[in-house]
Fold each of these.
Amino acid sequence: MKKYLFLLFMLSVYSSSFSQISEHTFDEKVEITVKLNYAIYTPDGYKDSKEDFPLIVFLHGAGERGTDLSKVAIHGPLQYIRDGNKINSVILAPQCPEGVYWQPHEVVALVKKVIKENRIDKSRVYLTGLSMGGYGVWATGGEYPELFAAMAPVCGAIYRPVYTNISHIKDMPIWVFHGALDDVVLPENSNKMVKALKDAGSDVKYTLFSLANHNSWTETYNNPELYKWMLAQKKDKTK
């Protein structure tokens, strides 16, 4: 019975608050064809409001790849909302195809398309993700720092180009999360990134959960302080 109720709830949420697309193109300097299913959550009041809303981009982990779009709500901000909480932000959750990893240019092409087609405050676009998605945060935020006001990678592996050239993200508000007992993506990954950022002058925040293994995302995304911190960040439009 519980399983039935869960499925019924998910179907009602996806039919009323989420939309998806299988393919799109974004033409800037070069046309990029992107094949990413995605879900979009819109908060209470979005439909009737004329204001621009912040946008949280969430990148899932390796286990949620594929074609079952409901998997993007198993963890992270959408799961937090599914549990009855509220976030006053549009949330974009793309789904990575099976057998591949997050590609920064594809993620950014989708983000720009969503910004163009929705009422989004361009100075308040945020990037977060877990495990493979944490790697995707370092990769995407590292290559396109001008797009994001803040980012929060969770138990993500080091993205080497970012690690060796940290200067372009040192001024971005960043909150890193990891489990001290993680034996899938070792905490040394986050330790090294945080040290490199601090050595470059960053005031990066770092939460290392002493008793958490790889699922440090549970404590991370269940913490309302994460969303409060994230939504308080605003990009300087003059830069």
Note: Strands lie at 24-27, 31-34, 37-41, 53-59, 90-95, 120-130, 150-154, 175-179, 205-209.
Amino acid sequence: MSENDLSALPVHVLSREIMARRISPVDVTEAFLARIQERDEKLHSFVEVYADDARLAARGAEAAIRSGHAVGPLHGIPIALKDLIEIEGKVVTGGSEAWRNRKAVKTATLAQRLISQGMIVLGKTHTVEFAMGGWGTNSRRGTPWNPWDAKRSRTPGGSSSGSGVAVAARLAPWAVGTDTGGSVRLPASWCGITGLKTTSGRVSTYGVLPLSPTLDTPGPMARSVEDVAWLYSAMQGADPHDPRTENLSFTNPMAQLRRGVKGMRLAKMPDIERQHASPDVLAAYDSSLLELQRLGADIVYIDLPFLFADVAAYNMRIMAAESYTLYHELIDDPDAPLDPHVRPRLAAGKDISARAYIEALQVREEMKLKYAVAMEGIDALLTPTTTTTAIPIDEVDQTKAPAHFTRFGNFLDQCALALPNGIAPDGLPTSLQIVCRSCEEALALRIGWAYESATEWHLKRPPMA
């Protein structure tokens, strides 16, 4: 197969072909490295590419598979990791110019888990500085180019901007991001791919540079729901370094992935929230509701005990307070080379009192209970993922956030899947968000798979892919 053929295959197909020895991990890895070399100067999705290490690992995978020593179905599959995930001896910057030479002294449990299953790390992908921003911009280290517009730079979504661009542009078959207020789902939306915001504790955050330990959740990003389900399975598991993972048992999303949505009760967002979405986004959203109804789901109305904007404000209060605590030395240093848009977001935490911070945590627990009552008998809440399609970078208002529909999921510790649900008249992708209760990732993936299987939006390729 040609480089383009191999890079276009979903992971579940690559795995089948590699395990059957019809294609080689060496050829697959070379195909992605070639595309990175050819295209990433413009796309700017990778901070660093581990070409030599990846080739060595691919040759080892090929030898192991040929000799009958495959460690599992993901042996020989390349992957990209967000530049928050530590690998011992490798530079991890967290998107900050101040840390451009910072080497990791440990390997994140998440990275260890993927590597132990035979995955080949292609390199690290760009992030908004310290993961504090939804637009995907980074004024000092560079902003990845959204591949859906070859002529004009548009928001790639953040903070997992490089991961979103790399997957959308076929520079990696899948990638790992993190999500504290929407940072997996926003780039999934604007880059036309699929991303899963996991429940806190599902995936260890040990060795992942933090933004807000209360809210941080690593998540998989890929070009299909099935691939996201595979990567989610590979990422999760108990870790003694992260106590939150100890009480959650492993769940296999593949067991129910193809069971459909017939008989499910899926809630549409309250009408008052529609005012925040553009006409193109609403049109795609309404079409998605009709499609899921056609597939046998009951689409129901719900009254929520909050407005998304109000919950988002509490989420931001927690994020700012915790991130300032973590990075105050850099933030308070006027000579530190920080992104001028990120510094004030982090510095806002300086003025948040202990009382205000604790109040936000208390409101969080109270709101979780109220939300559970509102969702009784309902399987999932459906919303758009972003309020608009990707906007031009030169039109971004950095004092605002694009996370209107996503932050409530973090605040309430829900899981949520974002997946393509249309192409707007301007040629840019739209996205549907499926929000399920804590620890119900398998259900979100099942609903997403049913929708994806009935449509072809996930097969659309950006012009720069």
Note: Residues 205 and 242 are 7 Å apart (CA to CA).
